[in-house]
């Protein structure tokens, strides 16, 4: 596997011709995906050869019909020729069905293999990758580019091979029939090539622009037709503005579609005229030869049919190198995604822990969200009908940008901003530790490092005295549970969302978890109970209900270590009380690290870690930190001072 910027070696860029140039390295890698289907590919080539050969028989039957059967009034010969003229399309059709079956098996198989490999690789990416990659671009790799790669094999390549075989076979027959007329027919070739290349380039530019405009239109729809976007539009009353923006994008797509259709039609009209001229010249010269007795009428009729079969592949092959290169760009884009190095990689000899005590230790941990190398997807130029048009930039300017430490395209600048600096602390098994500090202090960054969503830039995070980088990822996911401030639920039933944490859990386990999270009674009041669909991102539930479902989910997982963001400030008092009660249950007997937003949680903590600007500035109990009179004491006075209600409680 190739990593980093090496993927640019796959495909060079010809700026003069405005098209990519295929390399052997890229072709070898494409073949690696096609190799499991090599016998089907061989069968496909056989069908192409058979169809090309069978298609050449009909003109010869016409020649025999005109030159022999009709003049000689040979009824038996006429009958057999008629049967042959009917049988050839039937035979060709049967072979064509076989060819389509093989072609579909190869194409759909490659789509499956590419999608599975790409999805598997994306699943192994760190959280950093997803924060630096646009969702639309990622979906494009999984959909448009994978389909484009499949078409490169099952359509473009098949078309090129088919046309090439047909061209060679037709030329061989034509040279056998009459070499002079064959050369005359080939003399028309420049009239095909020059317009085809010129107008083909114009159409390619139009198609590229069309894909740009379609991308803009799709981006508008994606931004405004999801739950969050639609809510924002409605809250600010911008329906008319968004309609105007979408109408503008759709209008541009419509206009360029019309232009493409008209130019494309003129192109084929011109080629048809050139083909007609070539056919007329050949018939005229052939007619003269017939009048001189050097040619039979049947031969010139057969020759005219072969001429049509000659010009079709010639037209298709004039742009074959460009078409093939364009289709290969989709493969290149898929490989670029597959070659992104896995940041959170599991060591070959990683340790699997069946049980953990729950001791967590940070040793001089420093962390930055800025990676030293590119992690997200690079935006590249895409060509042809089935690809977008995002610029591929790998020239002198970009190289200078990288050398000087500047961000170019989606590259990461050299300078870092530390989210954590030299943080050290220990959480003993079963302890409840509260994280407090102003916004941006690094609290969430600490919670991300424990389940290894990121790796420390410097220092170590240890679980039961093991560096978590030495442990299997399955160990961390099994024994660490996390409830984030922004609860995410799948568009599925409550049951499915709960069982996602533990597919082997029983119905009783699920209900017990829901009761512990104070959500069971609410669920049972719903018309469909646990089979209620929660909607996009769980938006059919309130914020407090979503959080209680998330808490029930982590209870069902039953982890030894709990990491959570106790976000209750935006909830109503009833939801907050229910969640606080549920949290007490879920934290009982577990090592818990909580980003605390509530005084009761802080007072219940065995230890409080006070963060400020990425550094651990204070740690201790509530009384100890108040006695210090530092940042915690200030936060207590401004944020955590108990209300009258809490004092009574």
In the CATH hierarchy, the third-tier topology of the domain at 419-648 is known as Rossmann fold
- What is the assigned CATH homologous superfamily of the domain at 419-648? P-loop containing nucleotide triphosphate hydrolases
Which class of the domain at 419-648 in CATH terms? Answer: Alpha Beta
Measured distance between first and last alpha carbons: 62 Å
> Which architecture of the domain at 419-648 does the CATH hierarchy give at level 2?
3-Layer(aba) Sandwich
Helix fraction by DSSP (H/I, runs of at least 4): 55-70%
What coarse outline follows from CA principal-axis ratios? elongated
Question: How many DSSP H or I helices?
Answer: 24
The main sheet orders its strands as 8-9-10-5-11-12
In terms of structural class, how would the helical and strand content be classed? alpha/beta
Mean pLDDT: 77
The total beta strand count reads: 12
Draw up the topology in text.
Layout: E1 11-14, E2 19-22, H1 24-34, H2 38-55, H3 57-69, H4 75-123, H5 127-131, H6 135-177, H7 179-187, H8 189-224, H9 227-235, H10 239-291, H11 297-318, H12 320-338, E3 360-368, H13 396-403, E4 418-427, E5 432-436, H14 443-449, E6 458-463, E7 466-467, H15 473-479, E8 480-483, H16 494-499, H17 507-516, H18 520-525, H19 543-557, E9 561-565, H20 573-587, E10 591-595, H21 599-604, E11 607-612, E12 615-620, H22 622-628, H23 631-640, H24 644-648
Parallel strand pairs: 5-10, 5-11, 8-9, 9-10
Antiparallel strand pairs: 1-2, 3-4, 3-6, 6-7, 11-12
